[in-house]
Amino acid sequence: MPYPITRRTLLRVGGATVVVAGIPAIPASALAAAVVQADLVVYGATSAGIVAAVQARRMGRTTVILEPGAHLGGLTTGGLGMTDSGTQAAIKGIAGEFYRRVHAKYAGTPVTPTSPARFTFEPHVARAVFDDLLAESGVPVYHGVRLTGVTMAGNRITELVTENGQLFRGPMFVDASYEGDLMHRAGVAWTVGRESNATYGETINGVQLRGGHQFNFPVDPYVVPGSPASGLLPGISAAPVAPNGTGDGLIQAYNYRMCLTQAANRIPFPRPAGYAAADYELLARYVQAGWSGPFFTTHGVGNGKTDSNNNGAFSTDFIGANYAYPTASHAARDSMAADHRAYQQGLMWFLANDSRLPASVRASTSSWGLAADEFTSTGGWPPQLYVREARRMVSAYVMTERNCRGQETVADPVGLASYTMDSHNCQRVVVNGQVRNEGDVQIGVPGPYSISYRSIVPARIQCANLTVPVCLAASHIAYGSIRMEPVFMILGQSAATAAMLALDAGVALQDLDYPRLRTRLLADGQLLVWPPPATGEVILDSRAGSGVTRAGTWLGSTAIGGYYGPDYEHDDNTGKGVNRMRFTPTLPAAGTYSVYLRWTAHENRASNVPVDIVHSGGIANRTVDQRSAGGQWVPVGTYPFAAGSAGSVLVRTENTNGYVVVDAARFVPA
């Protein structure tokens, strides 16, 4: 049901006396007005939305957060206390500060830039950290404010219309919701479901009938075993399974991340209204076939509590019950969230009480219960449904599996992701008369990878003043890696930074000077590339503009992966001696630098590409073989350079015996 908005539901964080960076917070009287004005209007009090608002305040701007529900902090405060962090060293900026603040809460010490980070925590501790950040920054949060309309002037949002009748106006907006409702209302292109592998040249998108979280014993799917005419058990699809890699409209399953405990004051698992044991007949058969568990995870987060998640073939994921959720009305979403809650509560009741299960399973489950001091307003049950994916924007750059695998890099990074490409199961099907789960993918990435600025802003023609750090442009399988709470915080900070810089410059977000954005992100502690650049390191992409000069004709291509930036260029195996390209870095200090080149390898490449390195001691002539060592930084020597732009690297094509590729040059202090 809708949450009524009253003045008391505003999160008061210091009233009108808070001043950040010389800019006072919005006065209380203005917050209660029919029209509320702020420099940045953030829709969604997720972790990304909170960080975006805090960043805007730190940049001296006013901001408000509108939250359609009653919960603050999204999954970070909603039970996901065992952070899906990937490479923890890649989490910087305000995201890194959040996890340092968590450690400081537990340690009872002040937070500093060198404080340790803690990535496991109880939900109420995460909430306390967010409350501190909001209070210190003077950010007001409106709860129960559901979006009903967006007013546009050309390709710009001018105001948001909410159910309670208030209007929220501003020059810049952030859609930080899990569902992408604001971008949808603003006319931004989006998609739902799984692309085919062919769409973006991927290998693990679309239908994936694999072995993860799969039935390990044969289980009959029919109401009457062996009788297809009797119909299928609840939750099993009658549709035939398409070949692997086929696109469809299905999305990975949702659940609730329970905070459990074995403490004496634990709350026993409730029996939900309308409970029907038949809903868990499939699980009973699986146990009878030989499965003894585990049935859910019990990862500790502190003080004897857990972050409990889906585990195995039949667990807390309500497979197939969420297909309509991304585009549903608020009322329909409330109903689906209630169905997920009833399913999961019924599952836990079943595991703890059903006489068909072994006594050991019932006793083990009953030894756990809901933590009595967490989620006290909802009886210990988490209020935030785990919306693992919903709408995903389609913009000028779509992140794909190639980015996750390091086969393609971006020229305009705004943060890093590093978690496994992770999709939970999407459907439960029948294969050869047995039940099978379909959609689970868990494939690691080689290391942290950069996320493109263009993937968090829409196409200019659609909206020029909106950033989308949560429902960003990514394929289904790439989103499975990016969709982690630390990454949402990282992108929330970058989204707000871009919005405020574009506001200062009076330009559309799509016209923001990327070097200016990069400079500010780095100054605020963000990490944009991996491995972290050495002090004084300079990288020049062939498309960099400044610092790159060319002669002849060069053709762009993305045919072979492993390039740096948006593409690589080649000479088309013509114009030999005419085509050449020079990389001229601006080095911050005199010294010895190791020089690297990057290209994509193929048997049609030249094996004798001449390279001239101009340094303070003269000119060094080298030859590189581009038929091998593609997709990596290849060293071409270490040389002395003066500060500034006196040095360079020239790639030539004279007498070469194949295609010559130019991609990027790198200068690293030795």
Question: Summarize this, please?
Answer:
With 670 residues, this protein is α+β, with helices and mostly antiparallel strands. It comes from Micromonospora pisi.
Write a structural description.
The strands form 13 sheets. This protein has a 5-stranded parallel β-sheet. A 5-stranded antiparallel β-sheet has the order 27-30-35-32-33, with no helix packed on it. A 4-stranded mixed β-sheet has the order 3-9-8-7. With 670 residues, it is of the alpha+beta class. A hairpin with a 2-residue loop joins strand 7 and strand 8 (156-162). The chain is 21% helix and 23% strand. The protein folds into 3 domains: 7-191 and 455-513, FAD/NAD(P)-binding domain (3-Layer(bba) Sandwich); 260-378, no CATH class; 538-669, Jelly Rolls (Sandwich). Helix 2 runs parallel beside helix 4 (123-137) and helix 3 packs across helix 4. The chain contains 13 helices and 37 strands. Mean pLDDT is 94; it is low at 1-17. It is globular.
Q: Please give the CATH class of the largest domain.
A: Alpha Beta
Number of domains: 3
Number of strands: 37
- Report the span from N to C terminus: 62 Å
- Helix- and strand-based class? alpha+beta
Domain Golvesin/Xly CBD-like: 538-668
Protein name: FAD dependent oxidoreductase
Organism: Micromonospora pisi
InterPro entries: CBD-like_Golvesin-Xly, FAD/NAD-bd_sf, HdrA-like, TAT_signal
